[in-house]
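pinging the channel bc i need a second pair of eyes. not urgent but kinda urgent?? the chain im working w is below, pasted from the shared doc
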Amino acid sequence: MIDNKISIKGDAVVDIQRGAIGHRATWTGLTYTHACKAGKAQEMEEIIRAAIAETGLIQGAEIKAQCPDPENVASFADTFFSPNVVKTFEVEFKSKSADRIDLEFHHCPLLKAWQDLGFDDETCEKLCDMAMDGDRGIAKAMGYDFHLGDTIANGCPTCQISFFKKAE
């Protein structure tokens, strides 16, 4: 059972950001579910994953260009995870160093949009993994490795995400 809790409420900027993220998630979710109904689930998943991965590469290149020290994962974290992003996803830094960051996300506005649409847990899990291709693309653009552990969409209390330097 998915429990996508919200603790930060009533912050105007966070509410706007969550709304915009949820709107994008609605488009993606409905596109995917309509393709499933049309018997084109596999083709649509490939298309969505490719588009999201490319979006991640573009966003990653922008982050890298703004990052004062792209070789330092903590510097990347400071550039990517603005205070508003941290509040929007209710991010908790479990570790943060020059080599690695480990994060736990306590809320996901994309997942909330899919839940609000009435999607079953399996569809939410699939859409979540597709959405994570954006973060995988960001890591790739930065020259980092990426690990996705537990996810809220998989029934866990948080999403566990790590960005880290590639092993030499």
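so Helices lie at 12-37, 41-66, 73-80, 83-89, 109-116, 121-142. and The longest strand covers residues 159-165. — does that match what u expected or am i reading it wrong
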